[in-house]
């Protein structure tokens, strides 16, 4: 059965050719069960929700409209219970649109640290800042995009194209945020891998609908869903459904994604919220598993909503069952209690739309003049962790004859390139950092925070050189070639900085090429031709092509510093001068040519006026899995990074562990519970007499007891069979998914099946960090030559040997079986590899398992 009903409700007419990918319907929407670590929160949520009226329940699920309140998204409030609306705020790297906050390194840099502890500390620090500004939900972290194509415009918001590296760091970031008392939001679910066509109305293309990412079941499980499973297992409170379609059904309307994969198989107990305007229907999305509509209006400030009044109406007319609205409310409140919002909550003390102290509470409506900003400084000592992650994430890509670290005895240091200096328009001078001026330390758009300051490379290197009694010149004009030439001749060491950015110069979100911008290659060549000790530093949002210059004999060192946040220059100086020995490893592959990746962004619609069809024909083979399979030599492989010391690996030991056999989950759930009593008399929900309606604001109330008139929807009252999918209203006990049964999937997937240990010795003369990486070959014809399964970051003293011990779970050695719809351990011979990059794996052993 096709789900045309979604399309009808979204009022977007599109004729689906029969041969397009489609998403099978899966109903009803699983209700929360409050098991395990959710038990106590669930109980509190049930108690709270049981006391609410229908309008109050609807308020919890409905946004009040774009720029209706202080936060980028707010739900309705429950004044009778003294319960303020929930505040959702960007971004994955700090707080967007607020003052006296920190600008943290991007997720991409966290990935480059390969350090779970740093991921946790950053999450916790960000959570504290959100908490102290009064935010309930931090809109991050990100594992969609995962990084299918290197040009993908928002890859930097997430971690790495490797699902295991991303999954571990997602989980730790979530734990950090939620331990600080704020709900995390894992986003964007799912396959939101490019910016082009994410919303049909954007970009001036004449297309009826958003792009459809068409993904097969195995690829979904083994690649894109994997980190979301880790997020759910880590207890994430909310998940954001994305703009794009999957198999021609919008993510927020797709019952297969939400009901089947997320809420049944992964047993997600929290709530699903929409991306901003990613909702395309009311009844349809509620039944498909969407619990909260953000920012709440059909389109920004339309004053109409898919939820709000329409959800009240839909419960009254019986299309959305009582148990479903109750489940939506309980899921939201379970997350609230789970992270301790009832203890940590303070009123919101900032405003997203102005930094003035006084202004209008309802920004769009120009109403409600009040004190908006208390200018609370929430930064604490977070500059320290930011500086630390900045240096820990710096990857040393080349270092000839110990060109680095610098000693401080350099007589004349020249620094070249716009990326070294300040933005002449101010550190936050471009809206949402959407320009390419001055040093690059953050991405753009909704993934940003305001810089409290930015220590530029120019400032930090100059301070160091001056301290050492040296001579210093910086040229931050990429076009000042003559001047650069003259200075490079004089200098004993030069550091050209090059950068790469997005959303400017015809780059519509996604990058249009992989070369450096502003002709940085010419600058690099100019400087390197004059100075035999040229150190290139790159701030980029992902891989760039380096082959035209990286082997220049005068380029003695290359550092990649990613998007390090506010302490950028200090973090760089720490590495340049050896205060910190670099231990970062590249979290993506650097190809020699764009075509090396085998995947690309779709820049032109390929389906006429219909939704562009992005077929993920490469399957699981993205990034290093593709380079390995196609045997392509990269410039720098996934996992690569040098150090100022050296390490040796020895003594690989792989021991199978006794594990109980894997048992598919069985049985059924209980029947869908309802909480409290819903008054079905429509007159109870009329706009209250005394209410002073704010313009374009979304309320749970109705204009009239004539529900059709109250809805204002011309299609109102269509016979249910036209748009209510079979079984969607059924609250009877439902079968448990065999691969499910507990948050993150079947508990047996996480049984330990092997212990692996290896000795790592620091064979050099300075202390350093090494990242042992364990890869597995699963051995089958459809499997990648190898996949990352475990890693750690160890600090080892010179001469010292450490034993790294790690474990493998059943999930680590399994493949998704599309026939049994479960994970299976295949009979193919399996091999374990350990080393310090995806292409330097000196140790290997056969993996034999007990069962
Ligand atoms: C998309 O279609 C493919 C091919 O039929 C199928 O394997 C997969 O499960 C579908 N996924 C979703 C989310 O509908
Ligand atoms: C719903 O939320 C709005 C906005 O916060 C509030 O004005 C209204 O009183 C709430 N309604 C109910 C029934 O609690
Ligand atoms: C978009 O395509 C439709 C269908 O071909 C056409 O009628 C319409 O004029 C086009 N609009 C624009 C702005 O090109
Ligand atoms: C109800 O939803 C429909 C779209 O399905 C929309 O056109 C209408 O304006 C909504 N009504 C209200 C009161 O928001
Ligand atoms: C940068 O250098 C070029 C070439 O010398 C020059 O034309 C341009 O005016 C300079 N830009 C600034 C902002 O000085
Ligand atoms: C790559 O894109 C940048 C930024 O739009 C542009 O300046 C540069 O010329 C492009 N490079 C190539 C090789 O097309
Ligand atoms: C390297 O730098 C030296 C100056 O130190 C210069 O003479 C030489 O030509 C440069 N080499 C290349 C290949 O450009
Ligand atoms: C660079 O050139 C200088 C001057 O000729 C020389 O002393 C120095 O050793 C050279 N450095 C490198 C790294 O080749
Ligand atoms: C990586 O491992 C090799 C040995 O296989 C060793 O020579 C090298 O020092 C290591 N590099 C780093 C940065 O740990
Ligand atoms: C409900 O009443 C308000 C205020 O009169 C009006 O703006 C709105 O359009 C009405 N909605 C519907 C669906 O009739
Ligand atoms: C019930 O209400 C919803 C929301 O307004 C509307 O879309 C739907 O058509 C209504 N269905 C019936 C059968 O009245």
Automatic annotation (TrEMBL):
Catalytic activity: Hydrolysis of terminal, non-reducing beta-D-glucosyl residues with release of beta-D-glucose
Signal peptide: 1-17
Keyword Signal part of the UniProt annotation: yes
One term of GO molecular function: beta-glucosidase activity
Region (Disordered): 135-156, 725-745
Keywords: Carbohydrate metabolism, Cellulose degradation, Glycoprotein, Glycosidase, Hydrolase, Polysaccharide degradation, Signal
Pathway per the UniProt entry: Glycan metabolism; cellulose degradation
InterPro entries xref list: Cellulose_deg_GH3, Fn3-like, GH, Glyco_hydro_3_AS, Glyco_hydro_3_C, Glyco_hydro_3_C_sf, Glyco_hydro_3_N, Glyco_hydro_3_N_sf
GO BP term (any one): cellulose catabolic process
EC number: 3.2.1.21
Pfam families: Fn3-like, Glyco_hydro_3, Glyco_hydro_3_C
Keyword Disulfide bond in record: no
Chain ranges of the Fibronectin type III-like domain: 770-838
Family stated for the protein in its record: Belongs to the glycosyl hydrolase 3 family.
PANTHER family attached to this UniProt entry: BETA-GLUCOSIDASE, BETA-GLUCOSIDASE A-RELATED
Protein name according to UniProt: beta-glucosidase
């Amino acid at each position: 059965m096709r789900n045309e009903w979604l399309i009808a409700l979204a009022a977007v007419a599109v004729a689906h050719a029969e041969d397009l990918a489609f998403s099978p319907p899966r109903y009803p929407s699983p209700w929360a069960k409050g098991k395990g670590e959710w038990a106590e929160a669930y109980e509190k949520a049930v108690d709270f929700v049981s006391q609410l009226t229908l309008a109050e329940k609807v308020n919890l699920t409905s946004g009040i409209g774009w720029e209706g309140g202080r936060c980028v998204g707010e739900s309705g409030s429950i004044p009778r219970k003294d319960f303020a609306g929930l505040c959702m705020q960007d971004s994955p790297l700090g707080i967007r649109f607020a003052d006296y906050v920190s600008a943290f390194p991007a997720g991409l840099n966290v990935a480059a640290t390969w350090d779970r502890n740093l991921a946790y500390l950053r999450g916790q620090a960000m959570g504290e800042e959100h908490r102290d500004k009064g935010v309930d939900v931090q809109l991050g972290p990100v594992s969609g995009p995962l990084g299918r194509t290197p040009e993908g415009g928002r890859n930097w918001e997430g971690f790495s194209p490797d699902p295991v590296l991303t999954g571990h760091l997602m989980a730790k970031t979530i734990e950090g945020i939620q331990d600080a008392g704020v709900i995390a939001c894992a986003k964007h679910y799912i396959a939101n891998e490019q910016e082009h066509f994410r919303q049909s109305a954007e970009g001036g293309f004449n297309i009826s609908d958003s792009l459809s990412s068409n993904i097969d079941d195995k690829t979904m499980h083994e690649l894109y869903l994997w980190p979301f499973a880790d997020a759910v297992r880590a207890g994430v409170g909310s998940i954001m459904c994305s703009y794009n379609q999957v198999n021609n059904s919008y993510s927020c309307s797709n019952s297969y994604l939400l009901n089947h994969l997320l809420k049944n198989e992964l047993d997600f107990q929290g709530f699903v919220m929409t991306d901003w305007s990613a909702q395309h229907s009311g009844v349809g999305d509620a039944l498909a598993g969407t619990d909260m509509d953000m920012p709440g209006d059909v389109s920004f400030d339309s004053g109409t909503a898919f939820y709000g009044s329409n959800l009240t109406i839909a419960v009254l007319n019986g299309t959305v069952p009582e148990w479903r609205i109750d489940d939506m409310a309980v899921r939201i409140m379970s997350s609230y209690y789970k992270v301790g919002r009832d203890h940590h909550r303070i009123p919101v003390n900032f405003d997203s739309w102005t930094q003035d102290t006084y202004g209008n509470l309802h920004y769009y409506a120009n109403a409600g003049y009040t004190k908006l900003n208390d200018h609370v400084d929430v930064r604490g000592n977070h500059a320290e962790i930011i500086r630390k992650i900045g240096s820990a994430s710096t990857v040393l890509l080349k270092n000839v004859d110990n060109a680095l670290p610098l000693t401080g005895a350099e007589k004349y240091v020249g620094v070249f390139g716009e990326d070294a200096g300040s933005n002449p328009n101010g550190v936050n001078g471009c809206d949402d950092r959407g320009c390419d001026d001055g040093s690059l330390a953050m991405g753009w758009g909704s993934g940003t925070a305001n810089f409290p300051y930015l220590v530029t490379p120019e400032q930090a290197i100059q301070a160091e050189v001056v301290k050492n009694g040296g001579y210093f010149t910086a040229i931050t004009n990429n076009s000042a070639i003559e001047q650069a030439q003259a200075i490079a001749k004089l200098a004993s060491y030069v550091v050209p900085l090059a950068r790469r950015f997005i959303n400017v110069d015809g780059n519509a979100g996604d990058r249009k090429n992989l070369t450096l911008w502003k002709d940085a290659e010419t600058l690099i060549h100019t400087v390197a031709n004059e100075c035999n000790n040229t150190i290139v530093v790159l701030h980029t949002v992902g891989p760039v092509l380096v082959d035209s210059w990286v082997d220049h004999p005068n380029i003695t060192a290359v550092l990649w510093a990613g998007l390090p946040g506010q302490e950028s220059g200090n973090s760089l100086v720490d590495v340049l001068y050896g205060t910190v020995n670099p231990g970062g490893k590249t979290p993506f592959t650097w190809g020699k040519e764009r075509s090396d990746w085998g995947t690309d962004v779709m820049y032109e619609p390929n389906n006429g006026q219909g939704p562009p069809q992005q077929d993920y024909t490469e399957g699981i083979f993205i990034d290093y899995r593709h380079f390995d399979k196609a045997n392509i030599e990269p410039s720098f492989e996934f996992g690569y990074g040098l150090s100022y010391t050296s390490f040796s690996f020895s003594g690989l030991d792989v021991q199978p562990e006794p594990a109980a056999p894997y048992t598919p989950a069985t049985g059924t759930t209980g029947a869908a519970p309802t909480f409290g009593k819903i008054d079905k008399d429509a007159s109870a929900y009329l706009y209250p007499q005394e209410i002073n309606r704010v313009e374009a604001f979304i309320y749970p109330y109705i204009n009239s007891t004539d529900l059709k008139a109250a809805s204002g929807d011309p299609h109102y009252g269509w016979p249910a069979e036209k748009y209510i999918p079979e079984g969607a209203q059924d609250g009877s006990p439902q079968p448990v998914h065999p691969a499910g049964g507990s948050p993150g999937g079947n508990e047996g997937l996480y049984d330990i099946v092997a212990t692996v240990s290896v000795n790592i010795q620091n064979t050099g003369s300075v202390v350093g960090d090494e990242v042992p990486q364990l890869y597995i070959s699963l051995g089958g014809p459809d499997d990648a030559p190898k996949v990352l399964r475990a890693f750690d970051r160890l600090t080892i003293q010179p001469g010292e040997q450490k034993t790294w011990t790690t474990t493998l779970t059943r999930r680590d050695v399994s493949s998704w079986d599309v026939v049994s719809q479960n994970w299976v351990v295949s009979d193919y011979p399996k091999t374990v590899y350990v080393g310090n990059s995806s292409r330097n794996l000196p140790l290997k052993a056969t993996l034999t398992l007990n069962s």
